[in-house]
Write a structure and sequence with these properties.
Elements (H helix, E strand, L loop, with lengths): L3 E7 L7 E5 L9 H7 L3 E8 L10 H11 L2 E3 L22
Antiparallel strand pairs: 1-2, 1-3, 2-4
C-alpha cells in the first residue's frame, strides 16, 4: 500500500486553491513561477494520503502520483456556477404589484 505524508497549503491570492506537497520535500520541488502565482503559502494541515482515502475535491491516487512525479499537486477551485440564470423567478416584477 502506498501512503504519503504531506503538507497542504492554501493560497492567499487564489480562493479555494490548495497545494499538496510531500512532508520531506515540502515546497522545494514546486516551480518558482507557480509559487509566485500562488502567493505566500499558508499551511492548512498535514495528512497521510493513501489511494483509498477520500478527499473532498481530488482523487487520492492522482494526488500521490502527481507529488511523486512533479513534487506537488495543485487543487484548483471548482468551476463557478452561473448564478444569474433563473434568479429572476425570485425577484418581484412591476407587473406583480
Amino acid at each position: 500500500m502506498t501512503k504519503l505524508l504531506c503538507n497542504i497549503y492554501k493560497s492567499r491570492r487564489k480562493e479555494e486553491t490548495y497545494l499538496y506537497v510531500s512532508l520531506t520535500d515540502d515546497l522545494s520541488r514546486v516551480p518558482e513561477v507557480l509559487l509566485e502565482t500562488f502567493g505566500r503559502p499558508e499551511l492548512v494541515t498535514k495528512m497521510i494520503i493513501t489511494p483509498e482515502r477520500k478527499l473532498a475535491r481530488a482523487d487520492a491516487g492522482k494526488v500521490i502520483a502527481s507529488i511523486a512525479e512533479k513534487g506537488f499537486y495543485l487543487q484548483m477551485p471548482p468551476p463557478k456556477e452561473n448564478l444569474g440564470l433563473g434568479l429572476d423567478v425570485f425577484c418581484k416584477r412591476d407587473e406583480d404589484e
